[in-house]
Amino acid sequence: MSRKKHSHSSPRPLQRLIEYTRNYRVQLWQAIAASILNKLFDLAPPVLIGIAVDVVVQKNDSVIAQFGIKDPFQQFILLSVATVIIWVLESVFEYLYAQLWRNLAQTIEHELRLDAYQHLQDLELAYFEERSTGGLMSLLSDDINQLERFLDIGANEVIHVITTIVIIGGIFFITAPDVAWMAMLPMPFILWGSVVFQRRLAPRYADVREKVGFLNSRLNNNLTGITTIKSFTAEAYETNRVREESEAYRQSNRKAIALSAAFVPLIRMIILAGFTALLFYGGISAFNGTMSAGSYSMLLFLIQRLLWPLTRLGETFDQYQRAMASTNRVMNLLDTPLAIHPGNMALDINKVQGEVFISNITFAYSGRAPVVKNLSLEIPAGKTIAIVGSTGSGKSTLVKLLLRLYEVENGKITLDGIDIKDLKLTDLRQCIGLVSQDVFLFHGTVIENIAYGNPTAKKANIIAAAKIAEAHEFIMQLPQGYDTIVGERGQKLSGGQRQRIAIARAVLKDPPILILDEATSAVDNETEAAIQRSLDRITVDRTTIAIAHRLSTIRNADCIYVMEYGEIVESGTHEELVNTEGIYASFWRVQSGLK
């Protein structure tokens, strides 16, 4: 499991997030407007209470009386009607902002996950070899969900706090300018404290996101390798390793919690100072007659509505920091440049002849010595060539270079005379069918796995492909035939059955170029014979590249290349190579029992 840390990070993650949401600005402004209006009507009841107290104390001289309604009974009717309207409107806008924010959060989450996944798919194979599947899963699910949670709740909280400060601050300075400063006095300290907490929390939550990635990676590896764990009776050992990762995640969270939990109590003490000052000095003003009893009542209610919600800033900043740490990780993924150019030349698969030239190519995996060195070979259209050699000689690497899973460092590979770097990647790979020794079947039915390379294929064509691959007979013996679920990675099937489904998949794709990478290496002799019969049928008039350890499977190839240490050391037909007394001849003697 890789724990390599990346020094680059997305600058101003909130700004990046806002830029990302530019396509949803209408929904965003609708949600903001609904939040503001909801808070306006939410702040109205304390004002109504102040007016009601004013009516009780002042009677015919109350605030409402100044608008021509002198009778206290009529004043209370007006107040009651206003109260019903305000509460109904508050509820309406609460429904609207909840719906708008949640739907916006779901939409952005959906789009961001798709963009991140699509970009991930476009990255070169080396990117995945340096990172754990669990870590990438954590990014695509956990991190993006964290962002969705903030948009669901946190964004609305921030708007509510800002609206509260503006509205109540304005009311204070209009109603009681002499004591307004007392209510406003805690504000700079609260905001300053919030910024300080935010800066200190940021690295702690970045560490939390990293630790949960490690934990998910460990769990993913263990669930994938459960058979190995059981066979080596390593359950206790793996439980301890999961415990270590989970404990590291817990401790990382504990450090973040220790700081975030201190926010509310400290802010509460600052709020206490403002509330107490207004309670005392405002009370003295009301007692002396310089402030009405109604205004004093209203201000006491409003200062609580102003200051107490600020205690929730701690939770809001907590959500914000978690969301920004996650946004950073997602944006860093989206900023990862594509190492392999997608190409721009279209290729008509129906016109591909399948002539491949490999000219003086050299390739090395990152930080390692070259595994392919100045290699050249010719693959004529419609012919079958075979590549043999010791383990680690570079055979499978050659396949990856032909599929452009990696980019050659020097030299070039051409298809029908066109450099494959110039061809569109999708077109290039569409005209190549790969049957690998490591067959990957997706969780789903047999028919879905065969049709993977040609999803629109008719069932009759799928069955015909299965028959060519000699898979139809065993498929019909499965519980639901072609509709049988194969399990994750095809675990419900034997190795030979998986191999034949992979061959059927390649047959149905019907590519002009077929690559067989150790296609019979993990099966018994009977299954190998069946697979070989299938291969003999599907390689007719098709450019075929066969990589094999078992020389009996490729003895009829038009040309056989022998690779050693990344170079071609021998080439020729089976008979020619056996008679040269070279490396191939020694391989043949060992496998045929002559030595």
Automatic annotation (TrEMBL):
Chief location category: membrane
InterPro entries: AAA+_ATPase, ABC1_TM_dom, ABC1_TM_sf, ABC_transporter-like_ATP-bd, ABC_transporter-like_CS, P-loop_NTPase, Type_1_exporter
Subcellular location: Cell membrane
GO cellular component: plasma membrane
Membrane topology classification: Multi-pass membrane protein
Keyword Transport: yes
Record keyword Nucleotide-binding present: yes
A matching Pfam family: ABC_tran
Domain (ABC transporter): residue spans on this chain: 356-590
Keywords: ATP-binding, Membrane, Nucleotide-binding, Transmembrane, Transmembrane helix, Transport
Transmembrane annotation, as ranges: 76-97, 158-174, 180-197, 256-280
GO molecular-function terms, A-Z: ABC-type oligopeptide transporter activity; ATP binding; ATP hydrolysis activity
Domain ABC transmembrane type-1: 29-322
Stated name of the protein: ABC transporter
Protein's organism: Merismopedia glauca CCAP 1448/3
